[in-house]
Amino acid sequence: MPKIVDHEQRKERIAEACWRVILKRGMKGATVRNIAKEAGLSPGSLRHYFSSQGDLYLYAMNLVKERVRKRMEKIAFSPLPVKEKMVRILSELLPLNTETHAEMEVWLHFIFHFYGKEGAVDGGVRSAIQAIMDGLETYRLLKEGIDKELETERLYALIDGLALHKLLEGGRLSDQKIIEILKSHIDLIVKDERDAGGAGGERIREEDR
Amino acid sequence: MPKIVDHEQRKERIAEACWRVILKRGMKGATVRNIAKEAGLSPGSLRHYFSSQGDLYLYAMNLVKERVRKRMEKIAFSPLPVKEKMVRILSELLPLNTETHAEMEVWLHFIFHFYGKEGAVDGGVRSAIQAIMDGLETYRLLKEGIDKELETERLYALIDGLALHKLLEGGRLSDQKIIEILKSHIDLIVKDERDAGGAGGERIREEDR
């Protein structure tokens, strides 16, 4: 067992080296040679962990997705009021701190790299937003008259549009403005918890006791 | 004078050849040699019109912007009801027909190509949306309590998010769904013309006569 853990840890460290190289030198600089050097390995021993550059890219992409997903999940299970929870969860999909900024920059490089080449790159953003909207529906937190399918698609476009603009025009678009937009958008689709009939998650249940 | 016109026409034809090459072969294939061949010219005579590949790219990008801008302007001056006008204007910024799809695909290639290289590529989408929001405010067509700055940013993110998703996941996201999202979003920020106190553009003024 320890060997497997070591193997996975080493793979993660190589993937992180891959991210750093992409951030510094773009996809063109993200060669096996450069990534091995960044990870402190020989190209030969890197090939022991990944059979091809494509394999490594795929692993590095999945690792970004996995980390974002875990952070979102952690927030989802926290006892925050629903609207605050939503702001925090959706913020994980936006380049609002050093970590998410780096993740999304790497991700954008991957999207550009794979654009037009093969099957679409799935960042899992849509399925994350779908899960949020499903959760809101289950707990009867969607406002009356909301078209869930339409609002899922709209929120998905809004999030990716904001992320893209922040990455490409970060100087103009402040983090504060993004949070303001998120909050106002959430207000449009999510009920206030006091109107939600006691189905609004941990906080309400605690207060009801 | 005719010579200048010919010169411009030739430049436009070369730019269009550049687009076609990008669509067929990506930015990597968009070499001076390939573009010249597509335009039916020798690489030498292409250099007579553009001193460098960068020059040609810049011209080709501006030509896309200019054409979209002209189509949007034409719709803006038409006597359509305001909400219909907005749907049509915003649709020009989305890959909903062969022409706009090709334009935006080329545009995305340009964004990818220039990403991280120099100053941000400005597609003019934000300034177009800013102009629309300014117009709505001037004619008192914004709903009460609307935060114009926030809504400009939100609409801008929504449009680019939808455009990106349509380009990357076109099979999933139908044109009809996009139009539905546009319409519902416009309903959120724009007054019905009958409530706008006669300031709702040509149609209302005609009816008032």
TrEMBL record, chains A, B:
<feature type="domain" description="HTH tetR-type">
    <location>
        <begin position="8"/>
        <end position="68"/>
    </location>
</feature>
<dbReference type="GO" id="GO:0003677">
    <property type="term" value="F:DNA binding"/>
</dbReference>
<keyword id="KW-0805">Transcription regulation</keyword>
<dbReference type="Pfam" id="PF13977">
    <property type="entry name" value="TetR_C_6"/>
</dbReference>
<dbReference type="InterPro" id="IPR050624">
    <property type="entry name" value="HTH-type_Tx_Regulator"/>
</dbReference>
<dbReference type="InterPro" id="IPR009057">
    <property type="entry name" value="Homeodomain-like_sf"/>
</dbReference>
<dbReference type="InterPro" id="IPR001647">
    <property type="entry name" value="HTH_TetR"/>
</dbReference>
<feature type="DNA-binding region" description="H-T-H motif">
    <location>
        <begin position="31"/>
        <end position="50"/>
    </location>
</feature>
<keyword id="KW-0804">Transcription</keyword>
<dbReference type="InterPro" id="IPR023772">
    <property type="entry name" value="DNA-bd_HTH_TetR-type_CS"/>
</dbReference>
<protein>
    <submittedName>
        <fullName>Transcriptional regulator, TetR family</fullName>
    </submittedName>
</protein>
<dbReference type="InterPro" id="IPR039538">
    <property type="entry name" value="BetI_C"/>
</dbReference>
<keyword id="KW-0238">DNA-binding</keyword>
<keyword id="KW-0678">Repressor</keyword>
<dbReference type="InterPro" id="IPR036271">
    <property type="entry name" value="Tet_transcr_reg_TetR-rel_C_sf"/>
</dbReference>
<dbReference type="Pfam" id="PF00440">
    <property type="entry name" value="TetR_N"/>
</dbReference>
